[in-house]
Amino acid sequence: MRRLRNAVIIGLLWSASLQAQPKLVMVAGDTYDWGVVTDVATPLKSKIELKNVGTQEVVIDEVRPACGCTLAPLEKSRLQPGESTFMNITLNLTGSNGPLLKNVYINSNSIPFSSQTLILKAFVQRPIQSDPLYVALPPLVVGKTVTATVKFKNTVKVPVTITENTSNEKTMTTNLKKTFTIQPGDSLETTVKVTPTKDKIGYYHAMQFFKTNHADQRQFELNIYGNVQDNTVADASGKTSVTPSKANKSSKKRKSSDPSSSSNASGK
Fold first, then answer.
1. Could you give the angle at which helices 246-257 and 259-267 cross, rounded to 10 degrees?
2. pLDDT digits over 123-164, tens only?
3. Distance, CA of 69 to CA of 190 (rounded, Å)
4. pLDDT at residue 9, as a whole number
5. Contact assessment for residue 205 and residue 224, using Cβ atoms and an 8 Å cutoff
6. Are 74 and 63 a contacting pair, CB within 8 Å?
7. Beta strands 219-229 and 140-141, pairing class
8. Domains parsed from the chain with CATH numbers
9. DSSP states of the chain as a string?
């Protein structure tokens, strides 16, 4: 009987110790979504409630945004059972365009998860929206032209005029005029052409810059990415050979038609 009683007491103590735990939860869930955002000049803000639903004190050791564009100061780092605190989120939208996803990491003594992640989401809609948001080119080869299609859409209720568009890269061209206007709700399709040169072998990044007459989007850019390879081919044995140039081919023809070279060869 004594052994049984001791076993019951130990079981009860063990069960109580499991229940006496710190547990931190994000009251509204681990994702906050602002939806479609058109005012890019004003930072996004939100208050995220964190609550201790456990039976021991929660100690929040760290709140760390993954990006410098996000601030998440914590009002209080030690929470008694049933107590709450707030993270005051500020997200700067400078340069953002299209889908936006940011993380805030929270580390504490919470059981069973000591590390938790708050996900921040929004869709930043500019007056002129490009589709795709950037151009990812297939593998590029020196001297060969690759094309891609991009659409620019007017998402506002007034016409938007592109007053200037320029590029930082001579190996990239578009069929856009220097100035053009897109009516409300309309789209304009353009073709981007890239013909890389030998000095561009490796990582490729070009940018097309645009200026507009819209107060909420005075300028924007289109980024073009890729990787440039030399104009070489690999044969079946795995060796790499350079495609002969026209000069080399004509030189070979001259040698084969030279009678002195054929006579020398027969005399050996």
1. 60
2. 999 999 999 999 999 999 999 999 999 999 999 999 999 999
3. 32
4. 53
5. yes
6. yes
7. parallel
8. 23-124 (2.60.40.10), 128-232 (2.60.40.10)
9. -HHHHHHHHHHHHHHHHHHS---EEETT-SEEEEEEE---SSPEEEEEEEEE-SSS-EEEEEEEESSTTEE--BS-SEE-TT-EEEEEEEE--TT--EEEEEEEEEEES-SS-SEEEEEEEEEE--SEEEESSSEEPPPEETT--EEEEEEEEE-SSS-EEEEEEEES-TTEEE---SSEEE-TT-EEEEEEEE---GGG-EEEEEEEEEEES-TT-SEEEEEEEEEEE-SEEE-TTS-EEEPPPHHHHHHHHHHHH-HHHHHHHHH-
Q: Are 67 and 122 in contact (CB under 8 A)?
A: no
Residue type, 28: A
pTM of the prediction?
0.68
Length of the chain: 268
Determine the Cα–Cα distance for residues 8 and 254; give it in Å rounded to an integer. 103
Side chain identity, residue 227: N
